[in-house]
What does this fold into?
Amino acid sequence: MSNVIEKVKIQGERWFPSTTSFADNMEELWGDWYCDSEIGKLRDVIMRRPGKEIEFVTQENYADFRWKGPMDVNKARQQHDALADIYRAHGVNVHYVEEQRADRPNALFMRDQVFMTPEGAIVCRNGISARRGEERKTAEALAKLGVPIIKTINGNGWFDGACGMWIDRETVILGTGARANKEGAAQVESELRNIGVTNIINFEIPYGHAHLDGLMNIADRKTVALFPWQVSYNVVKEFLDRDFKIIEATNLEEIKWGSCMNFVALEPGKVVAPAGNIEMKAKLEDAGVEVIETEIDELLKGWGALHCMTAFLKRDPIGKL
It folds into this structure.
């Protein structure tokens, strides 16, 4: 009876909250995932190896998916595998979205589904209806890996992951246009500010372009390549104020048809890039950037290249540039 009385005397909640931050607990509870740049040493990526869905594209319907034409299925898979092998050869863990809708051939362009942050993934909502639904399979794959999903774009917002680009831990470019509206970008901005991003650079993507990585990309700690006639002054000034070297891409054939700026940094000053862009390769090398080329002519029929196909899950921290 006395024990019962003593228990009754105990008043109030005896479970107290932990005051540690999400970031402090992340590695223990979720795993070692992180991204605050386009150039930090690449450790983990998630991709979608072209599956049955690319066989869905025919001569009759390819324009519905914004493709140049149907792909040679075997060649496309070989080129995708070759890219994954380059990543592995440089110590990158390659993860895959193993399942996807059979009517979503653009699913191989994984960058549009995931915008990675230091505290987890923002799962995107594509701007075009022909891609809606890809994100569900992406979310399933991320959950299976243990990557925290800190936001899923919802409501009236839409946002492709390639409409966002990290400069450093405090600075992110957010583009709006055909693939990201103001509502979607605002949702991304809210999450970024919640985890310590203080400088958001707004970039209105010009008509005729889908994403930032068709107009610009960062190759080294202080080196950025960009299309000078289509990148707004306020964006370029942010790089100039940080003493970046500006590589101007001016070969229209390479920009539009060769996706010359759609490269992926393996680490600061070393990139894997689409083969055949002679001028851009020379300009990058003149700036001290090592360029590894890979053939993707078949994959380019889907109007996407290396950066489009690769969603970063972990890069070494880059800090403030």
Notes: The chain is about 25% helix and 20% strand.
